[in-house]
Amino acid sequence: MRMTPLPDDEWDDRVRAALAVLVPEHRLNPRGAGSALGTLVRHPDLVEAYLTFNKHVMLQSTLDPRLRELAILRVARRRDCAYEWTHHVKWAARMGMSEAEIEAAGDGQATGELESAILTAVDELDVDSRLSDQTWATLAAHLDERQRMDLIFLIGGYCMSAMAFNALGIKPEH
Questions:
Q1: For the segment 75-100, what is each residue's pLDDT rounded down to a tens digit?
Q2: Are 72 and 158 in contact (CB under 8 A)?
């Protein structure tokens, strides 16, 4: 790790308040927060803003949870982010995705027009920050404008998270 989680003796009310935006009260401690949040909380103002955004894309988004997980898994694989991959494999499995579906999503393969378009959107946005007219049209045939916006911000947000986790050397807890 390039940057370690905040030591126990440095946790104060400001740190707990920053995490409280998204994290339940019983996890507002060094062990409960985990390696990623325990590290990011070294900058409470930043992590509070990040978690406010992340709360929307993960919990308040207009996108179906399965579609969110497909996109996140693809981002994690493309960005080679072990932390995101490990955590979201667990989320995807809890929502009923099989190991084969999870691996396929990571590889950019899906059955069905919408799921394929979601994975293609990840690839296109990650390569050049644009969506092709074909991908946009396919997404528009299945998703309303808010869902398409939520998808774009979800992908961008998780690309940013992967970049931060990888750059900071944050590893998954096993």
A1: 999 999 999 999 999 999 999 999 99
A2: yes
Kindly list the distances between the CA atom of residue 40 and the CA atoms of 8, 15, 23, in Å, as whole numbers in the listed order. Answer: 14, 10, 13
Least confident of 1-10, 87-96, 108-117, 118-127: 1-10
Q: Residue 173: helix, strand or coil by DSSP?
A: coil
Q: In b/e form, how buried is each residue of 84-102, taking b as 16+ CB within 10 angstroms? A: bbebbbebbeeeebeeebb
Residue 174 resides in a domain: no
| Cβ 172 vs Cβ 35: under 8 Å | yes
* Cα end-to-end distance, the chain, whole Å: 15
Query: Which tokens hold the place of 73?
Result: 């898994």
Can you give the CATH number for the domain in which 130 is found? 1.20.1290.10
The answer to whether residue 2 sits within a structural domain is no
Is the domain of 39 the same as that of 114?
no
Do 13 and 86 have their domain in common? no
Q: Are residues 152 and 76 in the same domain?
A: yes
